[in-house]
Amino acid sequence: MSDAAVSLTTMEFHPRPEGGTPRVWAFPAPERGRLGNGLTVLRCHRPGQQVVAVEIVLDAPLDAEPEGLDGVATIMARALSEGTDKHTAEEFAAELERCGATLDAHADHPGVRVSLEVPASRLPKALGLLADALRAPAFADDEVDRLVRNRLDEIPHETANPARRAAKQLAAELFPAASRVSRPRQGTEETVARIDSASVRAFYEAHVRPATATAVVVGDLTGIDLDGLLAETLGVWTGDEARPGTASPITADDTGRVVIVDRPGAVQTQLLIGRIGPDRHDSVWPAQVVGTYCLGGTLTSRLDRVLREEKGYTYGVRAFGQVLRSLPDGTGAAMLAISGSVDTPHTGPALDDLWKVLRTLAAEGLTDAERDAAVHNLVGVAPLRYETAASVADTLADQVEQHLPDDFQARLYQRLDATGTVEATAAVVNAFPPDRLVTVLVGDAARIKDPVEALGIGEVTVVTG
């Protein structure tokens, strides 16, 4: 008998491995604490995540910007990393690079966010740099002037971008002119040109303090004395007590109408259709998420199935809900919108079919198969979505900004899974009523105005692009 035959006869055969019992995934739960200077801290130990993510949430909302200085929050955010009382802008950038760290900051309606990512082994040094940026930013005249010039250079490019232009017009249409949410987040040419280092420092001194800030720290914290490290870095940041905010609820006019931003010769029409609706504090939010996903959340959604696959009008149309701002009392608003682009000759037919999809949805509802696919995708991809420390930190920071409980995201997936077809249908139908939508079209008005008017979806006006 050959060696091969012998080995086969003496080989032990084992049964094929079987899959284990599925385990329910849960969004990571943070631990909450507070430093002596009043800074709130949320920490989340994520074994194996050797890149630590830190998010600083500053209570410096856009509606706190002084009148006529829209954009000062953005310039302040960008200037935080442009030098401190210890380092010039170039030195600060070099120190970050030596740590292998990235530091970014941006301003939005809820406030200013500062984001740090750094290898765990370099966390002490990077946290010290972050603390310096928050504690004693230089706001040097030449650096602020450079940031203002850069911002002024960006504005024409944003205006030329059809999607950005549509978003700007929709905000102006929906919200009262006196409301900060109606105006560009990063300011206009007129308001940004007024910003100088004195106005940036004044905004910083009025709104940036540890007592109203939150630090979110996520990563593998094995062997790291995080309490001691925070005390030595962010803990030395000082400031006065919290000052009560004066933010008012968001209101909007969703009377059905169409606004065309004229772009003569455009070969495509950018469309953005929207209104405001419930935010994450509302019990309808999970059902609204499921229903909106069925309508336009993926390539197999109803809108794509009709406008892309059947008609070939577009490369894709999406429906989404985006939180604008939430108040401490649990009130807030989200932008509910449908966006995409279609070729100019088919602008009218595409809108006609889009409205037919909405009316059919209201008349017939979603199918169980649509609901099941949406829930499977929304819940099933969650573990992959939160593989990195940065993604977990970003979501926890969102919860802080929106005044949500620490376990909101964990409970959200349970609520998504429990959402039924009837609930999802009612939520999406209420979110996108065909007669209560404001439609913005960026395109060639001479070619698209008459076909759009013929649809009867609202009064049509034309503005210059």
From TrEMBL:
<protein>
    <submittedName>
        <fullName>Peptidase M16 inactive domain protein</fullName>
    </submittedName>
</protein>
<dbReference type="InterPro" id="IPR050361">
    <property type="entry name" value="MPP/UQCRC_Complex"/>
</dbReference>
<dbReference type="GO" id="GO:0008233">
    <property type="term" value="F:peptidase activity"/>
</dbReference>
<feature type="region of interest" description="Disordered">
    <location>
        <begin position="1"/>
        <end position="22"/>
    </location>
</feature>
<keyword id="KW-0378">Hydrolase</keyword>
<feature type="domain" description="Peptidase M16 C-terminal">
    <location>
        <begin position="195"/>
        <end position="378"/>
    </location>
</feature>
<dbReference type="GO" id="GO:0046872">
    <property type="term" value="F:metal ion binding"/>
</dbReference>
<dbReference type="GO" id="GO:0006508">
    <property type="term" value="P:proteolysis"/>
</dbReference>
<keyword id="KW-0645">Protease</keyword>
<dbReference type="Pfam" id="PF00675">
    <property type="entry name" value="Peptidase_M16"/>
</dbReference>
<dbReference type="Pfam" id="PF05193">
    <property type="entry name" value="Peptidase_M16_C"/>
</dbReference>
<dbReference type="InterPro" id="IPR007863">
    <property type="entry name" value="Peptidase_M16_C"/>
</dbReference>
<feature type="domain" description="Peptidase M16 N-terminal">
    <location>
        <begin position="42"/>
        <end position="175"/>
    </location>
</feature>
<dbReference type="InterPro" id="IPR011249">
    <property type="entry name" value="Metalloenz_LuxS/M16"/>
</dbReference>
<dbReference type="InterPro" id="IPR011765">
    <property type="entry name" value="Pept_M16_N"/>
</dbReference>
